[in-house]
Amino acid sequence: MTKQKYFLLILLLGSLTALGPFSIDMYLPGFPAIAKDLNTTVLKVSLSLSSFFIGISAGQLLYGPLLDRFGRKKPLYIGLSAYILASAGCVFATSLDALIVLRFMQAIGSCAAAVASIAMVRDLFPVHENAKVFALLMLVVGVSPMVAPTIGGYVTVALGWHAVFIILMALGLLNLIASWLWLPDSYQPDTSLSLKPVPIIKNFLSVVKEPQFYTYAFTGALAFSGLFAYISGSPLIFIDIFKVSEEGYGWIFALLSVGLIGSSQVNTLMLRRYKSEQLIFSALICQLFIVSLFLIGSINHWFGLIETVVLLFIFLCCLGFTNPNTSALSLAPFSRNAGSASALMGSVQMGLGALASFGVSMFEVKSAVPMVSIMTGTTITALIILTLGRRNIKVQATAEKRPNYHDLE
């Protein structure tokens, strides 16, 4: 593969992966305007964010078997088309209930792009390069939280929140055209795979039973669910509590995203000296310290705007190490059913993220405590699962006398 083709492929896969995050981040500054137009509250508007996460979680379970059965491109085209139609529907939403349903449908469409891009990493690149490729994708994806809220803030002020969904519709169309023109056929459809419920469930169960999968998939998902709590709670904290403008909120969100992007690229360099497992454990320990301090300070009203931004920045830096490495380790044992494995991994991540987001939206409290409490709880649980799961991986590797992923690094 030439450097030019490599760069184009990473850019295209990153663009597909970023469609979902862009759909999440861009409309966040418009929460107050949406709440005003639809006669509701900012916290209730965040339910449309939770429905998006639920849609992505459910949709990935749907697309996983389809990607393995029909190849990567056909399900991708269908998903992107559904995304475009749902985005158009959001433009004309006149009630919160309608927006919640349309956001769910939009998520169902966008998750096809996410699942396909993750599966194609496993298709197109050697196993030992997966963590590096995921980190590069995070660099492309990282542009989304840097620019999406900022653009969304200015668009909302100048043209209204409806214009945000017009832009999202256009992005979906561009991804559809680019995928049709330049995306390679990376996988031969497996016609032996059945799409009946029982075989699909058995296929997913075979993935879940793999100790390396459930250890790192659930560890990564729980650690990453703190990000969804932050996304759901940030409009309330910055706009309502600290009285930051929509444009200012976009800039703060972009600044914080630098932590996630920068650390994911430092992770690529660290992989030259350390194993993925070591980086995950170290990042989680740091993450636990930060969220514990954040929680104690929030309860006692110690922190203002600057301190809150600094703590969130460090928290996101930790995620930049855990996410690429847990993703790579989760998918490493799979080749034939990588699509189902990537779908299940994404579904677990988004499902737990939806619960975290929903938990924040349920508290009618103008405080950071609900958000930070969820971030702390998920971090602790991730560390427990990692500690217990690593023992099962070692037991299985000893019993089967086969090398694990780390021997390939």
Characterize this entry briefly:
With 409 residues, the protein is mainly α. It has a single domain (7-182, 195-408), classed as MFS general substrate transporter like domains (Growth Hormone, Chain: A, Up-down Bundle), CATH 1.20.1250.20.
Q: Which fold does the CATH topology refer to?
A: Growth Hormone, Chain: A
The level-1 CATH class: Mainly Alpha
The CATH architecture is Up-down Bundle
- How many individual helices? 15
Shape: globular
| Biggest sheet details | none
Overall pLDDT score: 85
Q: What ranges have pLDDT less than 50 throughout 5 or more consecutive residues?
A: 405-409
Secondary structure: number of strands: 0
- What is the count of distinct domains? 1
Which percent band covers the strand fraction?
A: under 5%
Query: First CA to last CA: what distance?
Result: 21 Å
Radius of gyration: 20 Å
Assembly type of the chains comes to single chain
Keywords: Cell membrane, Membrane, Transmembrane, Transmembrane helix, Transport
Family: Belongs to the major facilitator superfamily. Bcr/CmlA family.
Domain Major facilitator superfamily (MFS) profile: 6-394
Organism: Pedobacter steynii
